[in-house]
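Appendix B, record 7
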Amino acid sequence: MRPNWIDAHVRMFDFFGGVPEIVVPDNLEAGVKHPCRYEPDSNPTYQDLARHYGVAIIPTRVRKPKDKAKAEVGVQVVEFNLADLNQAIRELLDELNARPMKHLDRSRRELFEMLDQPALKPLPELPYEFATWKNARVSIDYHVEFEKHYYSVPHTLIHEEVYVRATQSTIEIFFESRRIASHRRADAPGRHTTLAEHMPPAHKEYLEWIPERFVRWAQTIGPHTAQLVQSLLDSRKHPQQAYRSCLGLLRLAKRYGEERLEAACRRALSAGIHSYKGVKNILDANLDQVESEEPPTVVPETHENIRGQTYYR
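C-alpha cells (predicted):
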C-alpha cells in the first residue's frame, strides 16, 4: 500500500508540472503513523517525500470530510474499476477537467491554470525514489544489518543507534540527522559491505590480505596448520573477520618454531579446537611435545575366532 501511495504523489506532482505549498491527505495508515487532531505524525517515508519536494503535509482531522470537500466530491464524480482505469484514465481525465462546472461556469483546468499553476514551485531535478526506514544498532564490528546484509559505518559509532534509509539501489545511514555512510545496496545474505575509511586503524593493516594468502602461508608450515587456518576462515560469515586470528596463529611460528606450531595444530584439530588461543595454550603448556596416546586397535572384520551370522542359522 505505501509504495503505491508514495508513487501516486510522484505522479501527481509530475502531472501538475510543479509542487504545491501544502498537501492535505486523509489519515490513512500509508501516510499517517499516529492520527492526532493537533499534531498528526506522518510515517518516515512520507516525511522523506515531503522533504524531497519541499511540501508541507497537513492531514485532515479524523472524520472531518469537509477538510477536503473537493476531493470527496471528486471521488463521487470519478469512479472506475481497475480495468477501465488502466485503459482509459487519461482520456476520461482530460474530458473531466475540460468540463465546465455549472456553479462556477469554468472548467477545472481553467481554474487550475488561473489559480493553482502560477503558485506551484518547480519540480526537483529528479523524482522521489521510494525509501524505507529502519532503526538499527551499530554492532561491535562497526556494521549495521539491513535485510541480512551488513553495512559499515565509522567505527567510532559502535553501540550507537542509527537510522537506515533504503531505496532500491542505495543504503544510507544517518546518525543524529546527519548522513554518516552511503553504500550501494547488496542482496547477498550474511555478507559484509565495508569501506576502508570506516575501519579502525588496526583493521586497515589487513585490507591488502586475501584468504588465499593466509592459506598459502600456512601450507609452508604444514598441512595441519593450513587446515586450521582454513577452518578459522570458514567459521566467520565474512573471512576478513578471521584475519586477525589467522595472523596471530601464523606468527606463533616466530616464537615457537614451525615444527612445534604444526604439531600444536595437529593436536588442536584432533581435540576439536579451532582457535588461536587454543593453539597458543597447547604451545605454552608444551602439549605439542607430548606423545599422543596410541589409537585403539581396530578389530578386523574377519577372524578365526569370530562367528559370523551364518553360524547361528
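Remarks on this record: The CA atoms of residues 50 and 56 lie 6 Å apart. The longest strand covers residues 178-184.
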